[in-house]
Design a protein that fits this description.
The complex is a heterodimer of chains A (167) and B (754). Chain A has helices at residues 33-40, 96-103, 113-126, 132-139, 150-165; strands spanning 12-18, 21-27, 59-62, 65-68, 81-83. Chain A has 167 residues and is of the alpha+beta class. Chain A has a five-stranded mixed beta sheet, sandwiched between helices. The chains are: A alpha+beta (167), B alpha+beta (754). Chains A and B meet through α2, α3, α4 and α5 of A and α1, α2, α3 and α16 of B.
């Protein structure tokens, strides 16, 4: 017969750099970064679609690289720059990727959208001249159930054009 | 119903961006998991590890002993709970009283478990991680029973899921004219028979289910999370919990897709509110994906024994069909739909002289089955269109020619109605768009080196389902207008599309209207979102509400200005008469509308062409192109509609080729994560095109037709026909789905291909 274990989780204090701001929170070590962002930092834009690392709805940027926040521990993220969907718009102006998603109707229910936005941002920052094949390759990391992907790829292409045109 | 379409045309027909989008792209959405209530506790469901067994004891002691755990309940613990059952909601083709009661699901398993994933206990804790830990400490004593898994065996097996019933058959409905059909078969030149099978797969929206229930100080219970059919669900939950309906309030949050599965009543819909009432604290429950893959309704698993009687020169004479559907362990709220609609719609858009069909649903020890986009329709279309290609091959006819020869002029009407639409024009339009003869010959040329195929499918989609919808339109003090609609939003853009309708009817700019649908306190009556009904029913109700508002405005203006109401003109938000005007909100009027129809649905013609290549070594099917042709009537928002049609087609494509809920020989689900249950990424998607034809509907005020689900109807059929075409002589072996690489390789082996 299994024995009851004793709880609660011990929390540890960490300071997380989230969208350029240092946030002090107290988190149990086994909490995922996704749960820390959502429940402790109060940013619920990062969504959980599977918690197995497959669907990518939880994609955030860690030092500008896309990661599955459901597979990273919150405490692991200390000392790294975390960027989430809430940090994309600046001074009320949408990021070109956000604008493009809206214009191309690249979202319907919107649940997978934050993950795709972060994935697209990291791609366009790192490989601004990525070919459409390369864009498709990188975007294939995330799942969408509503759109069939066609408008998502069109939005990324449109954002790519706009970002290239900017000084 | 005589409201004439009028008003401006500035909004309807425009591809206006979704009003919902701004919040969602900035991460400001409020999906159920994003919502928290002060003092909330977290619930975690304990689920059966075994597919079929006698549940003798549930051990809760270890879970209860864990620090942070507030309560743990099993089915036998709660007096009265064992009598609760999830009710039927849709009878489809039958009277509600004829649906069996014995296979309705209890809230928590009592003395039997019937599928892996069936709820049998619930843990409530201060923290969701603790709740999950504690749930793992609940253990059960279950005597294994042999599971019923094979569909054909289940029909006649005396291993009964419900020992008090005669058999595992849950529903069995005939359609058509068996006598006339049999007579035609007896005389026919050619009879072709086949069993076509379609596999179990599921709606699988990206967001999992969730609920929060909270008892207010006023004694009213608020529940966040319901969607789709909030009003029906509220009544059902109130009834089971013994609460007056006025004391229950359902609030729809942002919803991450439904496709038929979310929003129906599940055990949790009763359990979570009950916990809030009992523990007097807010209770939050969020399903995770591993759970969702066994606990949320699955769909599609049917085989169809289908026969076609034809003349030697290609006239389709008669169709005889029996579809058998694997219902899973319990009869869901809308479980009747897949087996019954499949039989109801099997004949399709063809001029058969007679047909007969029978739809049977049988219980199996799998996750219960409900609707998934185009329920029964996808299955029926796949079976019939696949068999028609086999018939075409037998008669040495091109599959397109066989169809053109036998198509009806316009979709078959439901009794007493006249349907608008022109099947031949629409089908020819599709063929012209892809330049079918050139496509055929280019495929033949390619086939020398690679296996490439073209597949065609035609069908009818049942849209605009339901009986009524309600709306209220209010003129607000700030000069804007709000429509409160009983529809639900599951991501399909209700607020945008209905806003466009409202703006045009009132002749005001789009940015001066708003639409709400979330809260049953604000919209106490409604039917909801399913069966492609949003556009027709939502717009119909709003149209009537605007008419009512304007009629009241005319009367009030007449009183104010001392003129006859008929002389008052309403335009752009004002009432005018004799050189004077008054803004509508000043009159303090609002309008209500209830749009009703007695016909059960509309019927739209759908057709599609798919092109695939099949790898000779691996059997992998690559879809290259998919073109669907749809009759969309008068389109409210082309951007939203195209999005729906593309998304629906994509779901059908990934369903035909990749997704599957697999069970092993003891009923253990093997598709327990997205690493097993495969959903296509953008790399697997072909180019998808949607051709829109418009044959506006006479019988509804704005000429609108339903459309969002049509995109999926022909997908599996067209793809299967394309793969069969690619396999050439071995093509007739393509009779079951999905067309995953390993299964296609098996066809190579059996068919003697390289």
């Amino acid at each position: 017969m299994p024995m009851p274990s004793s709880h609660p989780d011990e929390s540890t204090a960490v300071e997380l750099d989230v969208n350029g701001e240092l946030v002090s929170v107290s988190v149990p070590p086994r909490w995922t970064l996704a749960d820390v962002l959502r429940e402790k930092v109060g940013l619920t834009g990062t969504h959980l679609g599977c918690e197995h690392g497959v669907c990518g709805a939880c994609t955030v940027l860690l030092d500008d690289e896309p990661v599955r926040a459901c597979l990273v521990f919150g405490v692991q993220a200390e000392g790294h720059r975390i960027r989430t969907v809430e940090g994309l718009a600046k001074d009320g102006a949408l990021h070109p990727v956000q604008k493009a998603f809206r214009e191309k109707h690249a979202l319907q229910c919107g649940f997978c959208t934050p993950g795709f936005l972060m994935l697209a941002v990291s791609l366009l920052e790192q490989e601004p001249e990525a070919s459409s094949e390369r864009v498709k390759e990188r975007m294939s990391a995330n799942l969408c159930r509503c759109t069939g992907y066609k408008p998502i790829l069109e939005a990324v292409a449109a954002a790519q054009t706009e970002m290239a045109a900017r000084p | 119903m005589t409201v004439a379409a009028r008003g401006s045309a500035d909004s309807v027909g425009q591809g206006i961006e979704g009003v919902e989008d701004e919040r969602l792209i900035t991460g400001q959405g409020a999906y159920i998991a994003d919502i928290s209530r002060p003092g909330q506790l977290h619930a975690r469901i304990v689920r059966s590890p075994i597919a079929h067994g006698r549940l003798t004891k549930v051990h809760l002691e270890d879970a209860r002993a864990m620090a942070g755990v507030v309560a743990v309940f099993a089915g036998g613990d709660v007096s009265g709970l064992d009598a609760w059952r999830i009710p039927h909601r849709v009878a489809f083709g039958l009277a509600m009283e004829d649906l069996p009661l014995f296979p309705l699901q209890p809230i928590l398993a009592i003395d039997r478990v019937r599928y892996v994933g069936e709820p049998l206990a619930v843990v409530v804790a201060e923290d969701p991680y603790v709740a999950e830990d504690a749930a793992a400490l609940v253990w059960t004593e279950i005597e294994d029973l042999e599971p019923v898994l094979n569909l054909e065996e289940a029909l006649t097996s005396d291993n009964l899921l419900f020992p008090d019933a005669h058999s595992n058959v849950l529903i069995d409905v005939p359609f058509g004219d068996a006598e006339a059909t049999d007579a035609l078969f007896a005389e026919a030149d050619v009879v072709v028979s086949e069993r076509l099978s379609i596999h179990r797969h599921a709606a699988t929206p990206m967001e999992n289910r969730g609920l929060i229930a909270e008892l207010g100080e006023d004694g009213r219970l608020s529940v966040w999370g319901p969607t789709k059919v909030k009003h029906f669900n509220l009544r059902a939950v109130a009834n089971v919990l013994g609460l007056p309906e006025e004391d229950l309030r359902f609030i729809e949050p942002d919803v991450g897709g439904s496709f038929g599965a979310r929003g129906e009543l599940y055990p949790e819909d009763f359990l979570i509110p009950w916990l809030a009432l009992h523990l007097k604290r807010p209770i939050k429950w969020i399903e995770d994906r591993a759970e969702g893959l066994v606990a949320s309704n699955q769909s599609r698993e049917q085989y169809v024994d289908l026969e076609v009687a034809a003349s030697a020169d290609g006239e389709l004479l008669a169709l005889r069909s029996h579809n058998v559907c694997s219902m899973g362990a319990y009869f869901r709220t809308n479980g009747a739909v897949p087996p019954v609609l499949c039989a109801y719609i099997i004949a399709g858009p063809y001029a058969w002289r007679a047909h007969s069909a029978r739809g049977t649903g049988v219980a199996t020890n799998k996750t219960p089955l409900g609707t998934f986009r185009g329920p029964g329709e996808v299955e029926a279309t796949y079976a019939r269109e696949r068999l028609l290609d086999i018939v075409a091959r037998r008669l040495d006819l091109d599959p397109v020619d066989l169809r053109r020869r036998n198509l009806v002029d316009s979709p078959r009407p439901v009794a007493g109605t006249v349907e608008s639409g022109d099947c031949r024009t629409q089908f020819d339009g599709l063929l012209q768009h892809v330049d079918y003869p050139a496509l055929r010959s280019s495929v033949s040329t390619r086939s020398a080196d690679e296996l490439v195929g073209v597949g065609v499918a035609c069908s009818e989609a049942a849209t605009a389902e339901g009986h009524f919808e309600s709306a209220q339109v209010v003129a607000e003090r700030d000069g804007t207008f709000t429509a409160h609609t009983g529809l639900a939003s599951v991501g399909q853009g209700v607020r945008t599309a209905m806003g466009q309708v409202l703006a045009d009817l009132l002749q005001v700019p789009f940015d001066r209207v708003a639409v709400t649908h979330h809260d049953t306190d604000v919209v106490p009556v409604g039917e909801g979102a399913f069966g492609d009904r949003g556009a027709v029913f939502g717009a119909g109700a709003i149209s009537l509400a605007v008419e009512d508002l304007e009629s009241k405005a005319r009367a009030a203006t007449g009183d104010r200005f001392g003129v006859e109401p008929e002389t008052v003109v309403i335009e752009s938000g004002r009432a005018r008469a004799g050189g004077r005007s008054i803004p509508l909100w000043e009159l303090g009027v609002s309008g209500v509308g209830r749009f009703e129809r007695s016909i059960p649905h509309d019927t739209n013609f759908v057709a599609a062409i798919a092109v695939v290549s099949v790898d000779r070594r691996t059997g992998k099917v690559t879809p290259l192109r998919y073109v669907g042709a749809y009759d969309v009537g008068r389109v409210i928002n082309p951007l939203l509609l195209e999005g729906q049609l593309t998304g629906a087609a994509a779901q059908g494509i990934t369903g035909a080729l990749l997704e599957e809920n697999v069970y092993d020989e003891i009923g253990q689900p093997l598709s327990s994560s997205f690493m097993d249950y495969l959903i296509a990424t953008c790399k697997e998607m072909p180019a998808i095109e949607s051709l829109m034809f418009s044959f506006p509907k006479e019988s509804n005020p704005l000429g609108i037709k339903g459309g969002g689900n049509s995109g999926i109807i022909c997908t599996q059929a067209a793809l299967a026909n394309a793969v069969a075409d690619a396999l050439g002589e071995a093509g007739d072996l393509v009779t079951s789905l999905p067309l995953r690489a390993n299964r296609v390789r098996e066809l190579f082996r059996v068919g003697g291909l390289g």
